[in-house]
Amino acid sequence: MTTTKATRRTRSTDRRRQLIDAATVLFAERGYPHVSVTDIARRAGVSAPTVYRHFADKQALLLAAVQTRVDELEESTAGADLASSDHPADALAASVTELSISNPHATSLWRWSGQHLSADENADVVRRTRAVLRQWASAIRADRPELTERESMYLAGAVLSVVGSGAGRAVRSGAHEMEEMVLALVRQTIRLTPSHAVPLRQTAGPGDDAPTRRDEILDAAARLFAEHGFAGTGMDEIGAAVGITGPSVYKHFPSKLAILVGISQRSAMRLEAGVMAAYAITPDPAGRLNALVDHYVDAVTSSPDLLVGFVSSYVLAGEPQAAELLAVQRRYVARWVQLLTDIDADRPPGSAVLAVHAALAIVNDAVRLPRSTPRPEFAARMAYLMKGVMGV
Fold first, then answer.
1. Taking the chain (392 residues) in consecutive chunks of 10 residues, what is each chunk's mean pLDDT?
2. Residue 274 to residue 156: CA distance in whole angstroms
3. In the chain, which end has fewer C-beta atoms inside a 10 angstrom radius, N or C?
């Protein structure tokens, strides 16, 4: 009888993990709102009632998936035994690289899940993740005692972004080659010194024209979407933020979706303006890439538009404007890759793609943590880390 009960518990645990893994992949591929319990059941090869025997609803599955990934992050860090290693920073680099290759979702699922979790659930994920980052920071500082605690935390956060950037999906390389490229980026990140950052160069701004009511609505909506998510924000809240009623917002935009499109289009225009400004400054590829980094950091830290566009992109899936906006983003990233390749013609294309995605992830991830952005040195250090991981 005891053996039978133990077998049942094992099967239940295995089934639960199977469902969590299936949900994780689907959430990452399609976006949480576009995945149903039926989809998860089909992916796991079970019936929907089987899912409900283990989880109350899709929200419970998401929470379990995020918690499982944080578990893996903690287990990987504990397994590396950083405190007793002769070279803790190298041990960290090897550990996080292995985890990112074998289980990329362990280092990236937290990136987009926050808007779908409760405040308490998010607080727990952040608390546990920060505890892991503090261990990483200690390992980095053990090999580099000249760093301050804050500098080492900047580097630890950057390492998490590098291994969780997801660029591997865009690079066609063998597993061993991919691991070597990621490991090289992690080691390069750990060698950086954030206090060496210099102020951003002045870049072209969006213009000095007086804002229209339409601009005010877009500004307010972007702030609300960034704080509460697209689904958690209503037209009444957007109207109240600019001093008008919810129905009055419809005089300017036919729907909340149209507002998101407007925010995304505005951010795309700002990116393209940054490209034109960078290319007008100098013909030198390194100079252009440095200017693009400074402009991007300024754009993403001074306005929530870009972050909202990234986090809420799933909302636009299937919309006529989605393909155009995605094309703009891809062209923008392709310019960075081309410039990095021009700077170092011997660099493998896959390595350039990985480095660019890692660099962008560093600042995109950091602005999701509101306690970081108000610091005066934040923007300069983000630009420094981005340039450093790309080697420019």
1. 55 86 88 90 95 95 93 93 91 93 78 80 90 96 95 96 74 76 95 94 60 92 88 91 90 93 91 93 95 95 87 75 84 95 90 94 84 76 97 91
2. 29
3. N
Task: Please spell the DSSP secondary structure of 106-175, one letter per residue.
Answer: GGTTHHHHGGGS-HHHHHHHHHHHHHHHHHHHHHHHHH-TTS-HHHHHHHHHHHHHHHTS-GGGG----H
Confidence (pLDDT) at 372? 54
DSSP 47: -
Rounded to 10°, the helix 378-390/175-190 angle is 140
Q: How far is CA 297 from CA 204, 304, 311, 363, 392, in A?
A: 13, 12, 17, 7, 16
Cα-Cα-Cα-Cα dihedral sign, residues 264, 269, 273, 275: positive
What is the amino acid identity at position 217? I
Select from 245, 219, 216, 221 the least CA-distant residue to 233.
221
**Residue 87 neighbours by CB under 8 Å, 6+ apart:** 143
Which tokens hold the place of 295?
A: 């402009």
Give the Å distances, CA to CA, from 247 to 228, 237, 238, 251, 286: 20, 11, 10, 8, 49
DSSP string, 188-248: HHHT--GGG--PPPP---S--PPPPHHHHHHHHHHHHHHHH-STT--HHHHHHHTTS-HHH
What is the dihedral sign for C-alpha 235, 240, 246, 248?
negative
Q: Model pTM?
A: 0.88
Rounded Cα–Cα distance for residues 389 and 189 (Å): 6
